[in-house]
Amino acid sequence: EPNLTFIALEDRDLVAHFALKSYTITATAEPEKGGTINGETFFCEEFDHGEEVMLLAEAAEGYEFVNWSEDGEDSGSVNPLVFDATEDRTLLANFQHQ
Fold this sequence. Notes:
Largest sheet: 5 strands, mixed
Strand order of the largest sheet: 3-1-9-6-7
Radius of gyration: 21 Å
Number of strands: 9
Number of domains: 1
CATH architecture: Sandwich
Structural class: mainly beta
């Protein structure tokens, strides 16, 4: 419970325990045979709040990396993509046939 209510009748020592939030970062190659993210066609890992995330898209033979997208929106073509984990994210690494 995040809240504690009590009547103070004497001195007491209280200890609060905190934990960092963690977030799931997911990235998928699109199309799957087009390449990899950090060596996998499907990347999914947990990161602590504020932890640096680095996603490296590598094109398979005959393909080239186009961009990152999230929720149907273009997220740029910077590669590797580096950001701090502050929320769950689901990204696509978009590749096209050469």
